[in-house]
Write a structure and sequence with these properties.
The chain is mostly helical. It has 9 helices and 4 strands, in the order H-H-E-H-H-H-H-E-E-E-H-H-H. A hairpin with a 5-residue loop joins strand 2 and strand 3.
Length: 202
């Protein structure tokens, strides 16, 4: 049997363990009842247990690119090499994927990380930019007044983030894909919806 002090302490512990107050719980029950009436279910956010960092190749798209021989072996290897530096949701190559404030990688720093000469990295990025696999956005100046670029990866090829919530800023970087990439089986980039009215006025 608990004595009075132990009972009070236990009640305090239970109160502290509550996720919702009684008022919040009542409101949640009301919302759940409304959802049930419409055949819906309110699902609480899941706690993330595994915090391993990962980026994903879109398998169907990669298979398609292989089938049309869109990428050279050197370009494929390069994409594999840069995968560890793809920032979460931004799909930008960053210095540290674990940092809260993710700083874009310069081409020189990227070359050092993957063990290639800066000129080779520059050539590969130019080729992949023409093929719509990467986008280079100007961010400022490096030493000796050389232009610095942030490098972004087309999320339809390689993506780090929630596939159901791809950032819209990536659409502005990859708005009109070339013919080959229009045939990709999977398109994650959010596209603006064109209404039927606007189509009918054309």
């Amino acid at each position: 049997m608990f004595n009075e002090a132990e009972k009070k302490a236990r009640l305090r512990d239970i109160a502290n363990e509550k996720i919702l107050t009684d008022e919040e719980l009542e409101k949640a029950n009301e919302l759940q009842a409304k959802a049930n009436a419409r055949g819906m279910k309110l699902v609480p956010d899941r706690k993330v247990k595994n915090r391993a960092k990962f980026a994903q190749f879109i398998q169907e798209n990669w298979e398609y690119l292989n089938s049309i021989k869109f990428l050279t072996p050197a370009e494929k290897t390069f994409i594999l090499d840069i995968m560890p530096y793809v920032g979460f949701r931004t799909n930008c190559l960053v210095e540290d994927i674990n940092a809260k404030a993710q700083m874009p990688l310069t081409q020189e720093a990227l070359a050092q990380k993957i063990g290639k000469h800066k000129s080779d990295v520059s050539k590969l990025l130019k080729r992949l930019e023409k093929k719509y696999i990467v986008f280079k956005g100007q961010t400022g100046s490096e030493e000796y007044n050389a232009i610095s670029h942030s490098v972004y990866i087309n999320p339809n090829i390689l993506y780090c983030g929630d596939r159901d919530n791809v950032s819209e800023h990536l659409f502005t970087m990859f708005p009109k894909p070339p013919k080959q990439l229009k045939e990709l089986p999977v398109d994650l980039i959010p596209r603006p919806q064109i209404s039927r009215k606007s189509k009918s006025h054309k």
